[in-house]
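Render this sequence as a predicted structure.
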Amino acid sequence: MTVKDIVKKVFLLEILKGMALTLRMMFTRAVTRQYPEEKRPPFQGFRGRHAFVRDPGTGKEKCVACLKCATVCPSQCIYIDYREQEDGSRILEKYEIEALRCIYCAYCVEVCPVCALVLTEFYEYADYSRNKIYFDRERLLQNWDEFTSKLKTDKYVNKFWKLPGMDIRKMPVGKRFQEPISIKQKAL
């Protein structure tokens, strides 16, 4: 054993170094956020709770039941039922998203030809019941209303609706001319 080792053992040098570090840090500003009281604002484009975009003209969802979102979803968490009319158009009967299975990749938002689905900036929706996290059509519209009521602007546009670098001629017609949605206008 060397003299250096003896000094370390006798004077507990490592413990004193740790205590000095603790003492120094007691007088610095804390970096911890007290979560329920101090909430961190999400970054723009954050992928949170799902919502159906409400058409300002009709007050209903914009979904046309094309099934693209359910087809592209890697976790297969979107369930859609529809009925066809005589003219060939589809009427949405049931639309459900199982949020516990979702991986929040936003493929469903990107592929939607009419920009009917968004991932909002809400991240607090834990619950004791699975039924509350299973979003049906009405709950998705409620999510949209809650999301838009907290926005500070009169219009909303999602960054996933027009992908950067994509030629506008290759986009679906609904996305080519997508204007920001007026959210403060009342439904008819």
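Summary. The longest strand covers residues 90-98. Residues 86 and 92 are 14 Å apart (CA to CA).
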